[in-house]
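Researcher: Please predict.
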Amino acid sequence: MEALFYIFSIIAIFSALMVILVKNPLTSALYIILCFFALAGFYILLNMQFLAAMQILVYAGAIIVLIVLVIMLLNLAKAKDTIRDFHQMAVGIIAVLLLFAEVILYLNAAGESKPTGIYTNAVINKIGNTQIIGQFLFTKYVFPFEVASILLLVAVIGAYIFAKK
C-alpha cells in the first residue's frame, strides 16, 4: 500500500513537471492525463472509488478532450518562446514560496488531531462511499445540487448561443 503511494507520487510529480516543461502543447496535454490518472490512484488508495472514477471521467476524459480540441483549433504546433517579464517571474516566485510555506505549516501541524467526519471507515466500507455521497446530495444538499444543475444548463445554453453566432 505504501509502495503504491510512492509510485503514484513519483508519477504525479514527474508528469506535473513535464506539463510545464514540455514545449509541445499536445505532449503537455498527454502528461496532464497521466497526472490525472495518478491522482485517481491516490483516491483509490483512500477508498474513494467514486472520486477516482469522476477524476478519470471528468478530468482525464472531458476536460482533456476540450483542451486538445482548443489546441488543435488554434493550430498550436509548438509554443513560441515568449519574453519573460520581471513581474511574471516575481509573481511566480512569490506563489511558489507561499505554497512551500503552506506545506511546511501543514507538516508542522501533523501531530495535532484533525476533525473527523460522522462516518467511520467501517460504516463507509459497509455502505459504500458512492451511496453516502448520493444520500448527502439528495437530502441535505439538494438545493445547492439543483442550483448547480441550473447553472450548468444556463452555461450550456450560453455556449450554444455564442457558438451559433
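Model: Residues 121-165 form one domain.
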